[in-house]
Amino acid sequence: MSTEKRRLREKEQRRQTILNTAERIFAEKGFNETPMDEIAEAAELSKGTLYLYFKSKEELAFAIFHKNLLVLKDMIRQAAQSAQRGIDKIQAILSAYYRFYKDHLYLKSAQPSENPHRQYLNRLLGYYFKGEHPKHPYAERCFKEIQEIMGCIVGALQEGIQDGSIRSEIDPGKTAMTYGNLVLLFMLHLSQGGTLVLKGHGYTAEELFDYMFDLFLHALTREA
């Protein structure tokens, strides 16, 4: 391995160490309560070295969000590739959204310490969608990943129109934007206040997701 390749590999390993360390500490202590000095110390780096990789704590937080968006995008792409007809691709994509919700966002109220990282991520997701995020490169990268996720949904809808499994009169772009954001915001709503949302209704989050997905698929499916 050349010196340059080794240097780049070590740089990327150090960057991942910073992300993993910050992710853990943010989850344990909270974003506002965690100074950059503590992240640098836990990652066994100087504060100056940390700032070479991330110019601010906000940029570091969005880098963590970006990493998780990459996970979601990969899950959605694999789901779409697992099906043949367009309507089945959409169903698989919706299932991938739900798996991401369970694995990365949902925090059971009965076990608040089960995975504090999830609680941090849903707060960060809420912060991003409020439009208050700083205009730094990582915020733009997050937006790019969300656009690519929407593009995957659009592609599945277009395939469904072509193969006859999805109604021909729908607009793929508008449909992807409407339902893609609806699912994301519903996940956020449940993850931030699931106990209050579900209280008194007797429904589980899984039941509501299933029902929402059934409504969506029914609205898309072309009648025989």
Helix/strand layout:
Blueprint: H1 3-29, H2 36-42, H3 47-53, H4 57-81, H5 86-105, H6 116-129, H7 137-163, H8 172-198, H9 205-220
Kindly, what is the distance between the CA atoms of the first and last residues, rounded to a whole number of angstroms?
A: 60 Å
Cα shape: globular
Uncertain ranges: 107-117
CATH topology of the largest domain: Tetracycline Repressor, domain 2
Question: How large, in whole angstroms, is the Cα Rg?
Answer: 20 Å
Largest β-sheet summary? none
The portion of residues forming beta strands comes to: under 5%
Helix content: over 70%
- CATH top level assignment of the largest domain: Mainly Alpha
Structural class: mainly alpha
Number of strands: 0
CATH architecture of the largest domain: Orthogonal Bundle
Give the overall average pLDDT.
Answer: 82
Number of domains: 2
Architecture overview:
With 224 residues, this protein is mostly helical. The chain folds into two domains: 1-54, Homeodomain-like (Arc Repressor Mutant, subunit A); 57-220, Tetracycline Repressor, domain 2. Helix content is 76%, strand content 0%. The chain has helices at 3-29, 36-42, 47-53, 57-81, 86-105, 116-129, 137-163, 172-198, 205-220. The protein is globular, with a radius of gyration of 20 Å.
